Fold each of these.
Amino acid sequence: MALRESGEDYLESIYVLSKRQGTVRSIDVAEYLGVTKASVSKAMATLENSGYVEMGKRDVHLTERGLEIARQMWERHCFFVGLLEDAGVSPEVASQEGCHMEHCLSEESFEKLRSMLGREDVAGPTTEA
Amino acid sequence: MALRESGEDYLESIYVLSKRQGTVRSIDVAEYLGVTKASVSKAMATLENSGYVEMGKRDVHLTERGLEIARQMWERHCFFVGLLEDAGVSPEVASQEGCHMEHCLSEESFEKLRSMLGREDVAGPTTEA
DNA sequence: ACGTTTTGTGAAACACGGCTAACTTTTAGT
DNA sequence: ACTAAAAGTTAGCCGTGTTTCACAAAACGT
């Protein structure tokens, strides 16, 4: 069951928020992504069904599988945002637009692009939120 | 009335096909994009309403407004495909994935990125289809 | 412990962009 | 000119991902 762009965004935001604040609730994701809590509720149900997240009483967390994707997305996010910022794009715009670019490439293509552009330093998953 | 990704794809394909063969019919667009003629028919109605295309008896053509966007998209397409190919991605995959990247950036950001990466040579709108 | 506020869920609706199927219109072969 | 094929349109459906609104459940202040 392939993940769509929006699913990847949800996973990524759970990942970022959990690094930032420990536990993550639906409402946090909703605020972070700028969608309603109903949307998050629906999306979480789907993602849980597909084995990407698990929902506790009052929190959501990534499974192994979900974490892998989330980390990958975040890595790409940082890469593209860094690239755009280096090109002179403002951080706000770079962040907005990077958000979309991160979903366009296969893992293989992304690695090739990154290695050609030689930005391994700023693109790792360890970059802070 | 903002254009969506799919709308931009339709405009771009009309542009490419018109360079390739002169006049463009709906069916050509359908084959080029791999969608049904019904989908094209619907999309053309919308694009005509918004002033991006005009439909003759048996052809479609871009308005000034549509042409501007189509050219821009094609320019970006060539840029991203070239970039990916240079990175070692196969032409087929590069073309597929470049198709999505071209919709992510604002004009301003794209220009900045292009000028930083210095690929003006291959990214112009004069590149052949 | 009670009531208020916050958080989460469920139902119904909508927009979008595809599809199929049936139909109409145009084009083209003979 | 007639018929058959090709092209275009229309109507209706589906999946995805939103929304709003109403409600349920949990958390929190006092």
Amino acid sequence: MSQNRDIVITGSTKKKILDASMKLFSELGYKNASVRKIAAEVGIRESALYNHFKNKEDIFLSVASEIFSTPFNKEDSPVLSPAQLSNPKSYLHKFAMEFKLITFDKAKESLFRILMIELFQNKQLRDGFINEFHNKNMKALSVVFFTMMQEGLVRSSDPLLMANEFLSPLFYLRLHVTLLRIDNESTTNLSTQFEKHVDFFWESVKV
Amino acid sequence: MSQNRDIVITGSTKKKILDASMKLFSELGYKNASVRKIAAEVGIRESALYNHFKNKEDIFLSVASEIFSTPFNKEDSPVLSPAQLSNPKSYLHKFAMEFKLITFDKAKESLFRILMIELFQNKQLRDGFINEFHNKNMKALSVVFFTMMQEGLVRSSDPLLMANEFLSPLFYLRLHVTLLRIDNESTTNLSTQFEKHVDFFWESVKV
DNA sequence: ATTATATATGAACAACTGTTAATTTAATCT
DNA sequence: AGATTAAATTAACAGTTGTTCATATATAAT
């Protein structure tokens, strides 16, 4: 009961630690985000952290686990119903818009930063990136393109290649946006590029 | 004279420090690559580093300055001569092959890792990435595509958009390759993708 | 009201950080 | 040869790191 009260009034300490960690990891990276900085951000002493987490890595893993849990790999987000596929261009638009939404989502942006910062120093994140992000998206998209090809909606080609050609510019765009946002620079130019990419791509593959 | 002798026999200490730093920065990141680790890699004590560099940041800047000095922005690499443009597809192939070469170049790979690792924590590298890599490549490519459009070699579109569509998959590919290489995983699948991308792209834009 | 439990604190630890100073070693110049 | 200069070493510094422990405080259950 009191747990509920805590949650309502201030949010549980554990949640606060995760939020503070996410913020600091994404701004400073793992090594620079010290347990003391995290504790200070929460408003407690560093020793109190160890009541909620085994150690610093435990905190990081808890934060990092969120990276691949929610955003892209939800089977339901870019829906893959035959009805949708009969209007293939609008399906691609939907996929890109989902991607755009995630790109400009503050919380997801922090997770993306953590991912990018630690990608080259953490095998777990590398595997997650390739399996949960790249492979999953590629698989989903290539199924879509394969179906489109069979129905004669797009030109015949390697579905995996086509999926890659569709996904890469979206990722690059996301990276670009994230970089600009760090320095509070304008991203209005880039925000329209998601749609432009889909249009260009569709012009490239439609029969 | 004796300086020359040193260089011939062992390489100057300063050069050795830069090599060791490049290696460690790219493997561990700035913070984790301590001055003691760098000194140990060179084979001297940490205090001796300060005979050659002002401080740690001075070493990093010296290494980081190489990132944007050599690889892509050389005006001569992807040549932009009218003669080349009359065979547009082979020009794009050349550009992509240049990119592929850089991707699989051991030394350049280290610099790319440093860039990616510190990209989100170092404004200087962010600016360098956007100005020296992104903008420069985009500008060069969009001029090419603009010319191609005028000569009726490719379909009419926004040259900048087309440049982006051409560049993004190359970058994504490079990222992917670099990640696999960290874990010594095979990249044979990916090595053929550079050519496939150009073929797919050409099929997409040729009139 | 007393006990039990969860969570906070302050202090301390050993290890590591970047950097400096005094000193020794080695190479160069006259 | 001796003097000068460059580059190395040893030792120490003040700070920070992650983690632990004994203790205090507040909440929950009896």
